[in-house]
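Colleagues,

Please find the record for the two-part complex below.
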Amino acid sequence: MVYNFCMNIKTLFLGYGNPDRGDDGAAWHILNQLFIEKNMPDTDIFTADLISLTEKVDVWFNFQLLPEYVETIGEYQKVVFIDAHTGEIKDDLSLQKLAPAFANSPFTHHMTPSSLLSIAESITGKYPESWMLSVRGYEFKFDCTLSPRTEELCAQAIMLLKDNFLN
Amino acid sequence: MVSQKITIEPVTRVEGHGKITINLKPDGKVDHAYFHVNEFRGFEKFCEGRMVFEMPTITPRICGICPVSHHLASAKAGDVVFGAPPPRTASLLRDLTHMGQVIQSHGMHFFELAGPDLILGFDADPAIRNVVGLIQADPGLTLKAVALRKYGQEIIHMVAGRRIHPNFAVPGGVNNALNPEYRDAILKDADEMIAITKVGLQIFKDWAAKNREDVDKFAVFPTGYLGLVTPENALELYQGDIRLVDSKGDQLEKFDANDYLENIAEHVEDWSYLKFPYYKKIGYPAGVYRVGPLGRLNASEKIDTPLANEEFKEYRAMYDWKPVENTLNYHYARLIEILFAIEKVKVLLDDPDILGKDILNTRHNFKGEGVGVIEAPRGTLIHHYIAKEDGQLEKVNLIVSTGHNNWAMSESVDSVAKTYITGAEITEGILNRVEAAIRAHDPCLSCSTHAVGKMPLIVEVRDSEGILVKTLRRDS
């Protein structure tokens, strides 16, 4: 296991998903709520690039993961990927440490956090300590709101982020 | 042996993804293969009731892969709805942003998605036949690929203010003039990017020379071809008329985007949720056509930038200037288009108007209806809006690039399956070729959705009575 050893001791919360597809936007709702609680309600995480949440935590929101994010995550000591899942993870709310593992996508542009770490490791020989915070989603229709069950899980996810990475 | 059915299905979170079904005859040969798209076109309904001026920021949410294309097509439709043609500087800046999108998208496809098949081989171990395997096999090449993609992204970032989902183009123009320092920064690296693209072109040419048999039997079939062109029928990606040529290369139509409904209709098949566009006057399926790099170069007679035009001439001369039908040549055409896009970046940045401050036309002459068309990396993208006088949308119609290529993708799958599956054991390498028939078109099925975990392939073998005989799953 070769983690980054960099001067930057910051953590990156890298959320991804589509806020227009119901629970697929769970990460956006979680990160947005963190800024509201910091009395920064006007922060637009959708149209901004990297934003500082605290002195030690930056936030970045995207629709999906892309290979060039390797460069950005390489600048952080720790990365927390935040996303929704459909039940393929046992627990409705899950915080798991990640290891590099590349997963091919047969004919789409899909990329997983572990694939991103695998590319980082291949190019630079190292990768940031990384975690996957995953929230179960139930409704993925074209809608900007969360289902009640996912909304409750997002509240719990915020507590997990605070307990493990913010306090 | 009874007849069998094989299904290749990436397991994903939401609709909007595709799967392949291969029906085998009792002798093990392919009866027919299909590419199904479980696409849900709910986005158009989602947009109805919104305001036209919001659309350039809403529609990029359709797609996390080519958001800039939707952003620009939407702004162009808005220009027409509001009767507000953009000033020249704004058009140049939009075009420049679009070239950034083409460079990054095509660069990613060739080096990171197609490259593993071409450089490591269709039959290579799937555990290494990916971008990580490519890095290990040729780290220098991979770093070049990353640099090319980053260059495209940085153009978008510098010109439009954000790398992924810019809020830049608005009906009537753009909201940000170009900083001269950014112009110089983009120009400084252009020649290096051209050199990287030439490396890619040489890789493809060398591969094609060694694998001529594959190129000549892998999904080779006639269709029509469609793409934007200049008034002189040169390749155009941002602004022009739509040109449609037949399978012999003869022009069928050349029309303004606003007349697309007179020329394009959509057929429905009961095995796919994605419709099948075709040329209305010939009908379906005789009127099907291809878009994207292969379609565009077949619909063009030349390219207006010198390096790309030299490559274009060599490419078209391979088949005596007849339309190129070989699906694997999508990769070749894609590389020529990267070269064109980088050269076009230089042309645009050398134009004195690029630094102009007249970037927004605020004088509106409301028309209520408009069509915006652009050549997205994957092909022609059409946005059609009808709005009330207050700008609220009553109707939205989108024909996305992947839709135009729907018939061709399914035909490619059928052709490759019939060519390579001959009754013997179906190897992973053969299944990979079937998938590669789809990948060559670079479809965008993900539509801004994703899934935690891997995307396994499920292969189901069923007998003629539908009973499951065997299930294969590969997570690589």
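Residues 11-16, 447-458 of chain B have pLDDT under 50 and may be disordered.

Comments are welcome before we finalize the supplementary table.
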